[in-house]
Amino acid sequence: MKQRLLEEIASGKAAVAVVGAGYVGIPLARHFLDAGHPVIVHDTDPAKVDALRAGVSPLRHLSGDWAAKAVAAGNLTASADPACLADADAVIVCVPTPLTAHREPDLSCVRAAVAAAAAVLRPDMLVVLESTTWPGTTEEVVRPLLEAGGLRAGADFFLAFSPEREDPGNTRHALPDIPKVVGGVTADCTETAAALYGRVFRTVVPVSRPAAAEMAKLLENVFRSVNIALVNELKMLCDRMGLDVWEVIAAAATKPFGFMPFQPGPGLGGHCIPIDPFYLTWKAREYGFTTRFIELSGEINTSMPQYVVTRTMEALNERGKTLKGARVLVLGAAYKADVDDLRESPALRILELLRGHGAEVSYNDPHIPRLAGSPPMESSPLTAETLAAADCVLLTTAHTAYDPAFIVRHSPLVVDTRNFTRDIQEGREKIVKA
After folding, report:
1. Catalytic residue among 94, 238, 272, 392
2. pTM value?
3. For a tag on the chain, would you pick the N or C end, based on fewer CB atoms within 10 A?
4. What is the pLDDT of residues 134-189, one digit of tens each?
């Protein structure tokens, strides 16, 4: 069975189904289209399905006419009906893996997606999970769901895990240039999945089993979480010592070996870093192991929005104002620059804390025109008048659309959490780092 599917993959005839039309699934679908494969996108969100059917990318940062061309050529189909997966030779699952209210893994989306694949599973089909999860998920959760119908992984169909390494808005690293880690439940599963990803990625890195690939992804994110927590903690210490943490980091980064610079900020955002390490913390308990570094880094990073609000309060106090009743304009709602992604954004927590202290809060984000919170908010225009009307402008996201000189020139006070105003000289007395 392996040879037939390998031939279909090599010829570009293998139909690839991507489950999840989000920040991972859509870029992957686009690149498989570029490689010549027919692509099926399945998502439960009708708005995303309708957009793709109309030839429009659901992702603002991945715009262009690629979807329209693929739809017109009959190479791209989209459906909210999971039965569409029956037409696929390979099903790639790219769905969210959030935490529950008790900060435990929530695999409900994965289970639903795998159940949809299981309903149409046939011999020779390849199923790959890309969603970040705890080591053992593919073999302990996904495999039993797929094998419930009688087919066996490695004997009748292929099963693998290949962690996503998507970085929304990153223009320095094209997706095909990022090495792709692949771990199958058998050697044939690994070979088949590697062949499929080899159609898109220039380098494929096979590992011994799915759990090794799952752990590799968590290691990447734990590494970042711990090091970001370290520089966030040093930022707070440097503030007390009267030092500029960004100057310190830049100086340390001149060392050509043994040091990797990480940048502090107002807190962690996005789906990966604030969430994924806790999948490993949860799984470690099964082995009677406490992941102290992970838990401590989580505490520090989670505390950063409160630190930012405290610094804002102090900056206003130094100017004879209180946070209660102050007009605070927050610049940036997205968790990182130049994307419209609100997932786990620290700006949302900062807005909530500011309101809790009685501030009159508004925001601007060129990528997010409306926040559907409580209360809902509309993005304010970024004009000289808007900036001047604020008692404090709090910069939480360094969008390239923002002009730091313009912001400082027209604002009475700027609290900068991203070192975005580092090159500004005129009006520097109005800038407070946080």
Report:
1. 272
2. 0.92
3. N
4. 999 999 999 999 999 999 999 999 999 999 998 877 778 899 999 999 999 999 99
Instruction: Tell me whether residue 272 is one of the annotated catalytic residues.
Output: yes
Helix axis angle for 245-252 and 210-241, nearest 10°, is: 120
pLDDT digits (tens, 9 = 90+) for 4-35: 999 999 999 999 999 999 999 999 999 999 99
Q: What is the model's pLDDT at position 102?
A: 83
